[in-house]
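Handout, page 2. Input:
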Amino acid sequence: MAEFKLTEEQERLIDELVAYYVSSGGPIKRLLDSLDSFISDAESLAHLIHSIKKRMKDPAHLKDKLIRKLRKTQEAGEQFNVSKENLFTEITDLGGYRILHLHTRQMDKINRALLQVLEEAQCTVIEGPKANVWDQETEAYFRGIGIETEYNPRLYSSVHYVVQPNSRAKVTIEVQVRTLSEEVWGEVDHKFNYPHPVDSVACNEQIKVLARVASSCTRLVDSIFASHADMQTAKSVENQEGSPMVATPTTTQTSAPVAEPKTSDGK
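Output:
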């Protein structure tokens, strides 16, 4: 792909936008900190979440993203509409909040609890939840719990929410929810393919294999938890069925002989 050259005016605009983000990004950080407080204190999420990560977007990555967006709009014959006035809402991932958990089948409970916490934090979900998927089984699961899905050809897996506070502050942040296995793939892929894809067929093929291994790992963890739940259910049923057979302690009279049962004629 040919290198994209900015005009002097375009380069000045991009630099001004990045500088504005650096100097005026306080409301985004405050929203991240506030949301972190609510999520960290939520009892409904405590037993479902493994760990949490948050970050402000690197200015260099923002610049690269703005250039890609400008190029895309220019090639489509559209107008580049990002300005200082709408930067914090047009670029929705300037603040990023990531929730990591153990296995996919937790997502139904996580989604319900997270939506409730966001409401308590006086935040509105303006986009999502949307699950990035690449296989039919995962797609069917997310649709079954009422989460919209989108096919991702890069084999990326994660559930995204774009969140905005119910206040005068016009800012957004992106909340991602993914399993620990998906996080391993995501971190490796990010190192090589962000902000620009690595120019190596071998690396890209290996990263795709890693995505499949990570998916298999997540499925195995799902299976382990399902097997454990089945075992607990079986034990519970066994205990309930066996409980009438357990002798109830009574007072024992050792001095009195046990009476012989009488026959029908009284002998």
